[in-house]
Amino acid sequence: MKHKEMETSKNVGLVLSGGGFKGVAHVGAIKAIEESGLIPNVISGTSAGAIVGSFYAAGNSIEKMKGFFSNTPLFKFNRFTRKKAGFLDSEKFYDDLIKYLPQNSFESLDKKLFVTATNLVEGTVTVFDKGELIKPILASAAFPGVFSPIKIGDQLYSDGWILDNFPIAPIQKDCDIIIGIDVTPIKQPKITDFKNSYSVMQRAYYLKEMSNSEIKFKNCDLVIQPKKLANYGVFSGGNVDKMFDLGYEEAKQQLALYFENQKQQLQ
What pTM value is reported for the model? Predict the structure, then answer.
């Protein structure tokens, strides 16, 4: 059942966390949100959340957004770089994004979008919401050590996840309802799980972002965090369908609880 009364005359905000390939769970959650009739019109995203948020704001279908995660290979030979600070050249993913964002501007989007990235020189979060779209998205998703940073103007930017994996600040004051989707829940690992430098680096990122993000969850009206995503890695590209379904099912459950609480408050 759709809840049309909730979507009229209200700004509904959507906060999308980073999470690599786990970002496909955002798409599953958005499908459930759309089905409920609670339609977001303002979006703030970082890293994978910036990618999904931009695709959604541009009017791409659920299936097309899901297809990005199924059909975009990361480790193609021609995407590796020797002269930039990363294994993969972020700018070589431009052609993958332009298929979904052909007008390449914030102003062309159907919904208001904020994209956050980390200014590596200043050590601050930068919010992009005007002008060219794809470069800020590439910067926002440039996982440090893996993807090369992106130069915009005279500044160098990298993954928004570094300083803020749950960018609620850009939309907090202007939205009547805020839905947060976090696709990076963590579980306690075993010592034997730390098999290489990447596993240690990933654990460090998760621990840092968990404490920062959970403080902000209280400022949301609804938080969707599929706990079983903790069983998948940031680059788990072979599990797209499973992660999509986890996002969809968790969103349906949380939306049902949200609307039930709203109903009780009105009685």
Answer: 0.89
